[in-house]
Specification:
Blueprint lengths: L1 E7 L2 E10 L4 H15 L3 E12 L1 H15 L4 E7 L1 H10 L6 E4 L2 E4 L3
Parallel strand pairs: 2-3, 3-4, 4-5
Antiparallel strand pairs: 1-2, 5-6
Length: 111
């Protein structure tokens, strides 16, 4: 699993790729949290278009970032999810906390 961080203005984007599981979640969490702390964004975009597999660690990663962003009032947008990852996130209730897109096309916007 790899993560590439891009900062543009007040938006921090994290492009995830590979398998998102308990082995990789810690490194990704640290990289994203460091970017949030350094840049204080108004929006965090998590791009899942390169994720080939995700277990419950991915839900934990999203929930933890959401909690961190709540402290600063920043928003969260999840994009590029595969149909399977979208289903996992929807079942976990993530769409109530963040904008959630499937394959780059917006499906839910409850924020």
């Amino acid at each position: 699993m790899a993560v590439k961080i891009n900062v543009k203005g007040e938006v921090v984007s994290a492009y995830l790729s590979g398998d998102l599981d308990h082995h990789s979640a810690g490194m990704i969490r640290e990289a994203i949290d460091a970017a949030i702390e350094l840049n204080m964004p108004s929006l965090l975009v998590l791009d899942f278009s390169g994720v080939s597999f995700m277990d419950s660690s991915g839900i934990g990663l999203v929930m933890g970032r959401f909690r961190n962003l709540q402290r600063t009032g920043a928003g969260l947008h999840i994009t590029g999810t595969s149909p399977q990852i979208y289903k996992i996130m929807k079942l976990s209730g993530i769409e109530r906390l963040a904008k959630l897109d499937i394959g780059g096309f917006k499906v839910e916007n409850n924020q």
